[in-house]
Design goal:
Organism: Nostocoides vanveenii
Bound molecules: 4'-deoxy-4'-aminopyridoxal-5'-phosphate
CATH architecture of the largest domain: 3-Layer(aba) Sandwich
Number of domains: 2
Strand order of the largest sheet: 4-10-9-8-7-5-6
Protein name: Glutamate-1-semialdehyde 2,1-aminomutase
Order of helices and strands: HEEEHHEHEHHEHEHEHEEHHHEEHHEH
Largest sheet: 7 strands, mixed
CATH class of the largest domain: Alpha Beta
CATH superfamily of the largest domain: Type I PLP-dependent aspartate aminotransferase-like (Major domain)
Strand content: 5-15%
Helix content: 25-40%
Shape: globular
Low-confidence stretches: none
Subcellular location: Cytoplasm
Catalytic activity: (S)-4-amino-5-oxopentanoate = 5-aminolevulinate
EC number: 5.4.3.8
Radius of gyration: 21 Å
Mean pLDDT: 96
């Protein structure tokens, strides 16, 4: 049986009040603040396997997974050993080290079109740098992105972004100069005609199209058959680059990310890829990569500058390497099966309670929209009922299951979600579905 927790959480409430006196909104990343679901974010004191423990000593089955990285579960013993060993030999050198090479080799071995990778510290840095490289290579300035896709908080890529920007219903962000926004063309996702029209009108000025390989930041909205192929064909025909953002999908949807499921495309592979989350194993590590001939434009060999004090950090690379090495076929099969069990049970509970819903998939990544019908783009995604999700979320939380505090996010399952953890989620679903039906 799931536990039954009171809706107040005194220790987290006290910490949140204290946080608000020194941290904007009390959090260091906006979606953590529970604004769209209401209530107090749980302050976590420890995490192990599939579970989080909060400051009130309550245990939750975790379906946030740190928003993607924790594919093996929390504090995996062998990853912990690798991290402890690395940390015991120094925290940061500012000079090259072997694990950086090993992590790059691991990525190159998995994603066939990627020959060279540069390590950075966040997904935002990866997409920002890939975009700069694309502009440097083409000598063009415009970039096409898709509404509802989130690529980090890069000025040029915040327009109509998903994730927190979607959660808070922001059109885009204040503080982005109109000159930066003017170079960004936002198109509806899965709309080939819109893409072709923009390239017909403006193709010679477009440096790149950037897309989430399979979007997960407006909820999961997989590319319709032929869409990514069309992106590849149109960009190639107009001399623009295609950047596939695999920060979320990379090494999660398959050992080679979304590319491993869908690529290679008849019209060729994407030019540049970005990675993050899983490849850092919960530490700040991310990367961008592509063919050696393109990556050679980066400093020190080429004219496109990019750098980082902590890039390739020895502790982060040890965590990422140990994590990727343990992402075996069995791990992917387990996550796939657990995700299907959870999603099927959630759909059954919502159906039984008469709550409109749609489950969408990208590999083993799934999310549930609280609305009916196929979701193909951001406008469709916005039909999801935020109040129904908020009620569902809090009923799950009260029964010891921590979902992402936003209706637009993936439910991240890990290899540590064993039968006991999955059973606890299943047992909590009927009451949560009935709370959603009353919302
Ligand atoms: N791209 C995608 C597809 C993402 O999901 C995210 C983060 N959710 C980012 C980029 C940005 O990564 P980070 O938060 O590490 O900067």
């Amino acid at each position: 049986m799931p536990p039954s927790y009171p809706s107040d959480a005194p220790a987290s409430e006290a910490l949140f009040a204290r946080a608000k006196t020194v941290v904007p909104g009390g959090v260091n990343s906006p979606v953590r603040a529970f604004r769209s679901v209401g209530g107090t974010p749980r302050f976590i004191t420890s995490a192990r396997g599939a579970y989080l423990i909060d400051a009130d000593g309550r245990e939750y089955v975790d379906l946030i997974g740190s928003w993607g990285p924790m594919i093996l579960g929390h504090t995996h013993p062998e990853v912990l050993a690798a991290v402890t060993d690395a940390a015991s030999r120094g925290f940061s050198y500012g000079t090259p080290s072997e694990n950086e090479v090993a992590l790059a080799e691991e990525i190159v071995a998995r994603v066939e079109p990627v020959e060279h990778v540069r390590l950075v510290s966040s997904g935002t840095e990866a997409t920002m740098s890939a975009l700069r490289l694309a502009r440097g290579l083409t000598g063009r300035s415009r970039v096409v992105k898709f509404a509802g896709c989130y690529h980090g908080h890069v000025d040029a890529l915040l327009a109509a972004a998903g994730s927190g920007v979607a959660t808070f219903g922001l059109p885009d962000s204040a503080g982005v100069p109109s000159s930066a926004a003017a170079e960004t063309i936002v198109l509806p996702y899965n709309d080939i005609a819109a893409l072709e029209a923009v390239f017909a009108a403006d193709g010679e000025h477009i440096a790149a199209v950037i897309t989430e390989a399979a979007p997960g930041n407006m909820g999961v909205v997989p590319p319709a058959p032929g869409f990514t192929e069309a992106l590849r064909r149109v960009t190639r025909d107009h001399g623009a680059l295609l950047i596939s953002d695999e920060v979320m999908t990379g090494f999660r949807c398959s050992r080679s990310g979304w590319y491993g499921l869908e690529g290679p495309y008849a019209a060729g592979a994407p030019d540049l890829f970005t990675f993050g989350k899983v490849m850092g194993g919960g530490f700040p590590a991310a990367a961008f990569g592509g063919p050696a001939a393109l990556m050679a434009a980066l400093a020190p060999d080429g004219p496109v500058y990019q750098a980082g004090t902590l890039s390739g950090n020895p502790v982060a690379t040890a965590a990422g390497l140990a994590t990727l090495q343990r992402c075996t076929p069995e791990v992917y099969a387990h996550i796939d099966a657990a995700a299907h069990t959870i999603a099927d049970a959630a759909a059954a509970a919502l159906s039984a309670a008469g709550v409109p819903h749609t489950v969408q998939w990208a590999g083993s990544m799934f999310s549930i929209f609280f609305c009916e019908g196929l979701v193909r783009d951001y406008d469709d995604a916005k039909r999801t009922s935020a109040p129904a999700y908020a009620a569902f979320f809090h009923a799950m939380l009260a029964q010891g299951v921590h979902l992402p505090p936003s209706a637009y996010e993936v439910w991240f399952v890990s290899a540590a979600h064993d039968a006991a953890a999955v059973d606890r989620i299943l047992a909590a679903l009927p009451a949560a579905a009935s709370a959603a039906s009353d919302a």
